[in-house]
Amino acid sequence: MDCYTLFSGSSGNCIYVKEGENEILIDAGANCKKISLALSSIGTDLSRISAVLLTHEHIDHVAALPVVLNARPVPVYCQEKVAKEIYFGYQMHDKPKWAENFAKCVRTVEPDKEYEIGDLVFAPFRTPHDSVDSEGFVLQEGKLGIATDLGFVSPEVRRALLGCENVILEANHDLEMLWNGSYPYQLKERVASDTGHLNNDASAAFAVEMLSAGCGSFTLFHLSAENNTPLLARDAYLARLSEAGAREGREYTLKIAQRSGVTKVL
After folding, report:
1. CA-wise closest residue to 197 among 174, 230, 164
2. Of 2, 148, 154, 188, which sits 20 to 30 A from 128 (CA to CA)?
3. What are 133-192's pLDDT values in tens digits?
4. For the segment 3-62, what is each residue's pLDDT rounded down to a tens digit?
5. CATH of domain 2-264
6. Nearest by Cα to 60 from 173, 223, 176
């Protein structure tokens, strides 16, 4: 398996995965031109993408979808509520062609079931986020686990990701930066809530559990530009994993997904 994060954060999220002859995108944030350039930088292109998996309907995860589907009308896998929200959103904003293309491509999925795209096997699981529905994915029966937006580590998330060999997990904000920052108070509450985003320390604490269950590779995702820094996220992980007796480069590897730039995961 090959995996790269192409974009990460509120300005756009997109992950590339290749298994055998199958190449897919997980989310399609940013814009189509940027995604095409990112794919080119790793030696592939949009014409080779065979499917798109969506975590949820927020714009930083689906902004490029209409243009991607116009260029490459491939199956789009997502939860039923997410499919309806996207479809009716296009209709409401007077984009009937977008709605038509999306309706032709969409394939609805359910949590905790396995689906196949050629050689690629994926299983969705629910994540707690303030969208109409939200999900992460386990690929190749635990080779890779992905959870991009979640307010806390729910039992469903814990069950899905424990045992995964490699994990892409949100480390969105540093709590001190968030509460002392410039966001309006209601937005701070939303980000810190159980349906908001995962903070560095909660993400790192769960990493200790995942490490003990066999995970050896962590890629930190969806870092806030306003309420986090790569150094703070990294230090939170190093501190928690060091307390557990684990050393970077020996028991695990740690990467930070670039906001706009390719990061190799696998």
Report:
1. 174
2. 2
3. 999 999 999 999 999 999 999 999 999 999 999 999 999 999 999 999 999 999 999 999
4. 999 999 999 999 999 999 999 999 999 899 999 999 999 999 999 999 999 999 999 999
5. 3.60.15.10
6. 223
Q: How far apart are CA 229 and CA 234, in angstroms?
A: 9
Which residue is listed with tokens 């394939």?
A: 107
Alpha-carbon torsion angle 27, 202, 184, 133, nearest 10: 40
Predicted confidence at residue 147, as pLDDT, reads: 98
Q: Which amino acid is at 68?
A: V
**Contact status, residue 252 vs residue 241, Cβ threshold 8 Å:** yes
Q: If you write DSSP's letter for every residue of 127-174 in order, what string do you get?
A: ---SSSS-EEEEEGGGTEEEE-S-SS--HHHHHHHTT-SEEEEE--B-
Contacts of 237 (CB under 8 A, 6+ apart): 171, 200, 203, 204, 207, 218, 220, 254
Q: Give the pair of three-digit tokens for residue 201.
A: 């320390």
Q: What is the DSSP letter of 249?
A: T
Domains of the chain, by residue range, sit at: 2-264
- The model scores a pTM over 0.85: yes
User: Quick one: which of 146, 114, 113 has its CA closest to 127?
Assistant: 146
CA-derived radius of gyration, the chain: 18
> What phi and psi values does residue 147 have, to the nearest 5 degrees?
-140, 105
Do the beta carbons of residue 170 and residue 222 sit within 8 Å? yes
Which DSSP state fits 58? -
Rounded Cα–Cα distance for residues 73 and 96 (Å): 16
Q: Which two tokens stand for residue 17?
A: 């995965």
